[in-house]
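anyone seen this seq b4? input:
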Amino acid sequence: MLEVAAWNHTKKLAKQHGVDIAHQYIQDCIASYDEWVTKRGTCPGCDNFCIEQDENVFCCFVCNTRWRVSNEPQKRITRTLLPQN
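predicted toks r here
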């Protein structure tokens, strides 16, 4: 939701400043962000989608798998398994 809100605000600012932003470009960026979030939050143990427990650390509430992801948005998504609590 924040990503979509940011793009809506960007469209308003672009209009105010006479800048054209292609609708398809915005849609592609939102889709790319959605893919990034999905890859980070999908459990490597059971493919359940999870939310962040701590910064860059996820824990699956279905199978208790824990993993860490990079905080660098431009890096390839890698999920490093962590020991279970």
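Strands lie at 52-54, 57-59, 66-68, 80-82. The first strand starts at residue 52 and ends at 54. kinda curious what u guys think
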